[in-house]
Amino acid sequence: MDEVEVVVAHSERATLRVGDVFLKVDADRARLDAEVEAMSLAPVPTPEVLWRKPPVLAIAALPGTTLGRLGGPSTGSPAAWAAAGAVIRRLHDAPPPSRPGRAGRSGGALAAELDAECELLVTRGLLPADLVARNRRVAQAVLRPWTPAFTHGDLQIAHVFVYGDEVTGIIDWSEAGRGDALYDLATFTLGHEEHLDDVLAGYGTDVDLDVIRAWWSLRSLLAVRWLIEHGFDPFAPGCEVGVLRSRM
């Protein structure tokens, strides 16, 4: 019998792997529905949906390996990173869904969330005040008008599979919807700034690098407390706190 591998688990959801099948357990049925809908609309490779019986979604494993993970080395070649950039561009060029995704929060809501989170990080002693203040100023560049795109919303490198220099699929679409394309690019290169040029070579258009750097800061500031409270370590080398310190 195949072993059951816990891929990720926290209070909101869990993902298990049994052989060539991934089982996603999510108490939020709307989130499962959104994930299936996004995969059906996305003009990029996605895993096959085997069956769905809320709160469980079963999908087939993708061939190949991921490009790496946050805090770890990348296993992908520059050509693989460029191929990923081209696939991301194909997604962003597609007609965006009507549903707003995680990357589609309004500037006002995002600014209010960021202000509240920065205050908590300092008052609870989780991060030094100067580190928070510096990254809060950098993050300000995110708060500008943007054209809605079809965004993945959680485009970590661990969610992109490649075989050689070819992208075989993208997983975990529960946060997908209308949003800021540069959020996806920033999420994908978070902690792997050395591959940003490769990604943009494949993406094939000029982007505002200051906004990508701003998203690195903003995304990290919003993630630190949640990660600590859910048993993850944002202080590990190459992870969120390291990204914040690199902006100093």
From TrEMBL:
A Pfam family: APH
Q: Where is the Aminoglycoside phosphotransferase domain?
A: 21-204
UniProt-listed PANTHER family: AMINOGLYCOSIDE PHOSPHOTRANSFERASE DOMAIN-CONTAINING PROTEIN-RELATED (PTHR21310:SF40), AMINOGLYCOSIDE PHOSPHOTRANSFERASE-RELATED-RELATED (PTHR21310)
Organism of origin is Streptomyces cinereoruber
Q: What is the lineage of its organism?
A: Bacteria, Bacillati, Actinomycetota, Actinomycetes, Kitasatosporales
| InterPro entries per record | AGP_Transferase, Aminoglycoside_PTrfase, Kinase-like_dom_sf
Q: What is this protein called?
A: Aminoglycoside phosphotransferase
